[in-house]
Write the structure tokens for this entry.
Amino acid sequence: MARIPVNVLGRYLIHGHLSHWGCLGACRYAPRRALVGPALSAARPFRSLHAAQEPNPKAQLPPSVPLRKQWKDEAKQARKQGKKKANKDSQTVDGWELTVGIEIHAQLNTSRKLFSPALTSFNDSPNSHVALFDVAMPGSQPLFQAETLIPALRAALSLNCDIQPVSRFDRKHYFWWDQPSGYQITQYYQPFARNGHITLLARDGISPEDGESVTVGIKQVQLEQDTAKTLAQTDNTQWLDFNRVGVPLIEIITEPQIHHPRTAAVAVRKIQLLLSTVDACVSGMEAGGLRADINVSVRRTGDPNAPLGTRTEIKNLSTIKAVEDAIIAERDRQIREIEAGGKIASETRGWTIGSKETRRLRGKEGEVDYRYMPDPDIAPLIIEKDLVDHLRQTLAASPDTELDRLITHFGLTAKDAMSLINLENGARVQYFYKVLAHFERMIEEAVADDAMPDVKSYAGLIGNWTIHELGRLTTSRAGPLGQVDLDFTPEGDCIQVPDSELAQILFHLYRKHITGKVAKELIMALYLGELEGGVLESIEAHDLWFKELSPEEYEALVDEVVDGENKVLQELVSSETFPQGKLMFLVGKMMRAGQTERIDPATAERLLRDRVQKLRAP
Ligand SMILES: Nc1ncnc2c1ncn2[C@@H]1O[C@H](COP(=O)(O)OP(=O)(O)OP(=O)(O)O)[C@@H](O)[C@H]1O
Ligand SMILES: [Mg+2]
Ligand SMILES: [Mg+2]
């Protein structure tokens, strides 16, 4: 592979003004290194660069630092003035219908760039993974990396798209410093996937106005290149990192079929979830692996045949909350504008987190003409049916199927099942399955084949601990590490609390070999790295086994407690049911009266019920 070595490419310092493009070669960061500026300049004549004095048509450039500061200050001011945040409950406005269509850009989970064999390692030092083609060196040619197609196809299949047997690549021209060739390679005329859909359910959290479910059409999914990363500096200069240029993206375009802000946010989250379930994309939205552009229009209700209103496009939203808040703000702005007798201009707008208003970035008239043309250097993409069939058969279960399994087969509550699937981009649910597998192996060894307990009896316990007890570890103030997040790998391994160790703890808890209190202490010790040896060794070493009271000792304790609480006992006896409050009051008394660490609350409760039942009998 022809690659520009770091010491040749160096790191560029480019002034924020295009007229200063000529200083591309002036590498202040590594002044002793050889420079590639003149060569690049020859590859992209200044003429084309100077032609682009307009704002970046992609508008993916992070705002310069002073501008960002100004937006931050504005947002702070708005908060100070006690202005309410966008009202989360304002899902509808009387007399108006909102319409939203979404474009999502997601980085594919591949090791190579789309048209060069350079690696896609984002965290390596800047400009260390740059092939000649990535920076449009003269004579360099695109080399389609077939492996990039696999995650793209998995993504499209997870969105229920029809895979096109023949698709083609086009050039979308614009001139900006993050795009060395002067055009982005994309699929404009013939994308590789079309006609998909996603279904959003009430349990996904859609707006209540949408009822039980909404189906949103996916118009198309296309393959395209990412641009270079721009790093704004405090002195109003920009640094460029070409590691990202040419990294494969998919653009997912929905039909304009969403009518409530929260449902739009849920759609973005669901697409993100689907992509991560089939392992198609690098990371979640919050980590920058997925960016959403949101198209918003409004029209008056009453005439279903009226055309949709003029859309504005809010670029580059990077959190789910931003999607909902920005839509509410933009919808309200458009309604205000129309009610005041104005018209909606077709334009591109921006949104700052914490702000109340979207802001105009540029008008449609400022949009460049992209002069799309088929890329003459790239052959059509032919996708064989066999490949598609194979990928479809081996595709991971959709989150909906997964959710149903967690609820109906494993007996988790819908809320817990949803959290499990959403946490750490699906890593937590993988962790749950790993703990479950270890646990089942231990149970199988411990009991006879015909005595295997019902899966629901232990899966709920494992679910509860993998969601709530693990969650509590990072929020409790248990020591110097008390606030450190748990580290999960995408495969579902947890560094601090290994699945096999948690399974050991839960196995002994389930079998009543240890108490809940001891189990909590063990898991905390694991998290803090204070457990010497494994879980089992620790239980043995400190003799933490649960030494339950004998039946006689339990009976004596029940006698003692009911004697002292005769009034509560009589109330229970004369009641037809077992009021839980009263029962638990007596259990509490038993725990306090006896040796707490030797009492199982469930046994105590059962014995109390038996006693009451006996007294009720005629
Ligand atoms: N009247 C409308 N109101 C709301 N959304 C709309 C409306 N008309 C179209 N849309 C949505 O706008 C989006 C258009 O995306 P598309 O990529 O096709 O074009 P684009 O935004 O012009 O291109 P680019 O990728 O350059 O931004 C789609 O998600 C579509 O559903
Ligand atoms: Mg688009
Ligand atoms: Mg768009």
In short: The chain has three domains: 99-382, 399-541, 551-616. Residues 1-68, 81-88 have pLDDT under 50 and may be disordered. Residues 455-475 form the longest helix (21 residues). The pocket of adenosine-5'-triphosphate (ligand 1) is lined by residues 99-103, 253-256, 293, 295-297, 308-309, 311, 313 (CB under 6 Å).
